[in-house]
Request: fold
Amino acid sequence: MTDAAAQSTPVAILGSGLCIPDEDVARALGFADAGVDASILSPMLRRRTSNATRVAITAAGRAVAAAGCNPGLPAIFVSAVGEMQVTDKLCRSITRQEFPLSPTLFHNSVHNTAAGYWSMATGSMASMQAMGALDDGFALGLLEAWCQLQTVTERVLLVVFDETMPLHLLPDYAWKTCAFALVLDRDSRDRPLLHQPFQPAVTDPDLPVTEFPARNPAMACLPLFQALRQVGGAKQQVVLSSGTRPWLVEMVMP
Amino acid sequence: MTQLPPLPITACSVASACGLGTRSLYAALLDGKHRLHPPRLFDIDFPAWCGEVADEHLPALRPSLQEFSTRNARIALAAINHPDDGLRNALEQAIERYGAHRVGVVLGTSTSGIYETENAYAFLEAHGHVPASYNLPGQHIWVATARFLKSELGLEGPCYVISTACSSSSKALASAQRLIATGVCDAVLTGGVDSLCRLTLYGFKSLDIMSEQPCAPLDQHRNGISLGEGAGLLLLEKPHDAFSDCVHLLGCGESSDAHHMSAPHPEGKGAVIAMREALTQASIRATDIDYVNLHATGTVLNDRVEMLAMGQVFDPDVHCSGTKGLTGHTLGAAGGIETIITWLSLRHGFRPGTCNLKQVDAAFHCNIQRDSETDVPVAITMNNNFGFGGNNTSVILGWNHD
Reply:
């Protein structure tokens, strides 16, 4: 661990939530609810949203409820490809010259679609970030959250999601649509604490190489969600990304 | 909380319809003639004007990085390579000064390599599969061009992309600022890049906001947008005495409208929050701002709401203009390119005009510049960018002299 990361001011996890298709995995992580529940969206907004957005918003709503906090906080939505199914429909329409395009599909194709609908659903006028870093998405989303908590906000919502890829574009990537969310707080100390995420300068030969199911970037959240199940004040390094030189974070349980 | 100190912009460069490099952009801002024409990159079935980067300006990627080959990456590389601006050289110096792992990349983009994906779909329709040369992780995925730049330049710090539609690269600046302020990085390559594609042209057409003439932001007869493409890249570094003569990033403001996916808040409430937050972060008052580069897209509604918001933050005599009539709306690159326009305003002591503006909308009460003005004192500037999803940003630059 780098000195800077070891000495960094930690942030606290106030609440977590997820939305994944495999209920057994959800139960093993301590979550009774894993299915899509986008009731935070009004019926009109729900009709307009894609599956990816509803899944992301489901996880976000659960994390905020678990944290017991007001949803009107800044949020960071992380995804490798965002609204890929919407983009797929638009690209097919363009190829077949089926014009005009659907205006709803068009504004739903931006990477910050889930962030936009979340702000409308919650009335939050705070900053909504939408970012991506493929395999490093969760790690760098957590780093972005950590930086925001040191500088511009006391509390932030982090949502990591990805949806099923059109297999004609990427045959080996059978991603299952899923989302994980955390509410992070700068000042709480009686909760699980996370230091600054870091990437070691060299490969650690003792560290097992982590690969996630079908290389789905959002599944990089699994080790941290598993570590949250443990109790007692142990310090541990949690893997945040795949590959031979993954991003890591030091976590301290209360 | 960690303070956000003023951060020096130690180099920047730009590629747009105005050519390569900040000098070409400055010359274009002074002459005020638009660089728009009907799209040449592909055919469309309706009249529209676009600001394209000339093909002869686009370098090829080196053979070992072909997996990243997109128009987007080539536009970014053109800006990196421009010799007069010296951005590549400045990055090499930053690596030498701090170490490659201390230099990050946070790039904004709205559509990434979707132009290549559209071409792959045409092939898919004809042959039943995408072409062998198509590489979704290297070309389409949001972080693709940022990863290309990381590899091309040998950077080893954090590398991610911000994609919040038309505010993408302004938000990238804010993230880069935080990475440096918190000590995670010593330097960050930031700003943004976007390339023209059919999806945005036909998409904005479906919303009925594509102008049939070169767009005329802020004009009483404005009738929509013209799209553009380009890159606006900036190198931010941690404060140092050696950089005291550089223009500094003084503050950023970010907010949401919580209103609609493609229409702004009717009273400009989110825009007001972003501008006020940027002023607070920069520890200055609205009256300290010498020039505002407006988002000013040229749609009836967007310009009206932005001016309503301006009226809530500024006195009516504030100097402002919109520059999308010159470059077209470069979407995810707009924050980078227009922040560089404010950088030029500071460097040259000039206020850009509003290209294609004939008669200012009578409802607007700010001091909108129609023509560029030179030899004027400019110490602090603001750049506004607002995007789909109600995503708002304001970026304040200035000299860091007291």
Remarks:
- Residues 3-252 of chain A form a domain with the Peroxisomal Thiolase; Chain A, domain 1 fold (CATH 3.40.47.10).
- The first strand of chain A starts at residue 11 and ends at 19.
- The longest helix of chain A spans residues 51-67.
- Chain A touches chain B through 64 residues (CB under 8 Å).
